[in-house]
Amino acid sequence: MKTIYKIAKTELQTLFYSPIAWLILIIFTFQCSMAFSDLMSGLVRRESLGYGNYNATMGLYAGWRGLFTAVQSYLYLYIPLLTMSLMSREFGSGSIKLLYSSPVTNWQIILGKYASMMVYALVLMGVLSIFGIYTAFAVKDADIPLVLSGMFGLYLLICAYAAIGLFMSSLTSYQIVAAVGTLAILAALSYVKGLWQEIDFVRDITFWLAISGRAGEFVNGLICSEDVIYFLIVIGLFLFMTVIRLQSRRQKSSWAVNFGKYAVVWFIAMLVGYLSSRPSLMSFYDVTRTKQNTLTPNSQDIVARMDGKLTITTYVNVMDDYYWIGMPSQKSYDLRRFRQYLRFKPDITMKYVYYYDSVKNMKNLEKRYPNMTFDQMVKRTLESTGLDTTKVLKPEQIRARIDLSGEYNRFVRLLERENGQKTFLRVFDDMIIFPGETEISAAFKRIVMKLPKVGFLTGHGERNTEREGDRDYNAFTQDKPFRYSLINQGFDFESVTLDKEVPADVNILVIAETRQPLTA
Fold first, then answer.
1. Helix (H) or strand (E) holding 82
2. I want to staple 238 with a disulfide (CB 3.0 to 4.6 A). Which of 44, 167, 271, 391 is the partner?
3. What residue intervals traverse the membrane (predicted)?
4. Could you please report the per-residue DSSP string of 381-435?
5. Residue 198 burial (C-beta neighbours within 10 Å; 0-12, 13-18, 19+)
């Protein structure tokens, strides 16, 4: 430990003797100060105008414009400038030979230099802590755990960047090459999320490898074991590879031996990463005061009642407007829409069925594909989507499996329990499109408990639940693409007449603007 401490101390002294460390610290402080001042002035302006500020801490640090969100976007520019000289300088000046000839192990060299970067990262966090302290005094009931969670995520992100930069610095004696190489690796880890998402096996690997957005959960106040382990894996992976690189320079060995060492390290990292990403092995801690990253207690109670496995089968009509949600390239993103539910019920299984059939929006299709038959439209659509046509069911095949005509052959999910209870979960014709916690929990309620039933009195000129129009209640009661219809909000309904007794299972009776007298 003393050797590691001495190397780290020497590296820090060298770092702060150069203008780069000070320049980065000044620029970082200036950028953070400007961003925070802008955000704080916005909150003060809203307060002075009488609008109030709900969850001000979240607005200051998280969300689309928060301070920590902004910091994430430019951290990658700083770290390569700090790490480019860690090992390149030793190779370029020849001082690495002195280290090799001294009683110092490769691990001590690497850990000492990496420890210096961890200390510098703490200095950057110290800058951010100033804003946190100010927030604690300036904002009433400030959510300080949210601030600490975001700082923890950013610290892990910097440490991961530093490990990557240290490895790249060990590959060359040219500092600029090391810096550019680090930027290239960071860019690759950012964009790998979108690569080969159509291939089932590769999709999980590339999506997990992506470093972009990993600190986002921390910034929003949710600490997930998968994200923590991811950063530890990335740090450990590149530190191990750096040590292997030094060993190959210190003790000449064949390329096959070196390749084998790298392969073993990567295999172990991928195995641990795969295990850590399994829903049943993941742990969560929501640090926010309002627990806004967690299902509400009512939703948790609904999920707790759902014993046995749950299968969510997504039926994707490639001719529907919302087919893109269920495309193979979108499956990883689609799964994350149920992340909060997977936290409390990790045995949810996702399946996808692709088919083509007639849709309600045929006029739109005719505009897109003029002078084409339906079969020609299907052929053109399949060509543009790149789907394997052998896996796309024909109309007669999908109808033999399930009747989706009641759902207008739209994009829809079938929720099915082991005991056979099932219901549909829909997307909606609005700006949001996707169902939120309210709609998902309402669908879950339908297969775990008896829903309240609303009765609508008919026979006296009341508003009609069957007719569509401004006066009638079709949209309010049963319009499936309408988010706020009763059937999508956890209610059943039926029409009630006075020529017989009101059914006992009707919990609410609606008498909507009668136009004829009610007679006994």
1. helix 67-83
2. 167
3. 20-39, 60-79, 117-139, 146-168, 174-193, 229-247, 259-276
4. HHHHHT--GGGEEPHHHHHHH---GGGTT-SEEEEEETTS-EEEEE--SSSS-S-
5. middle
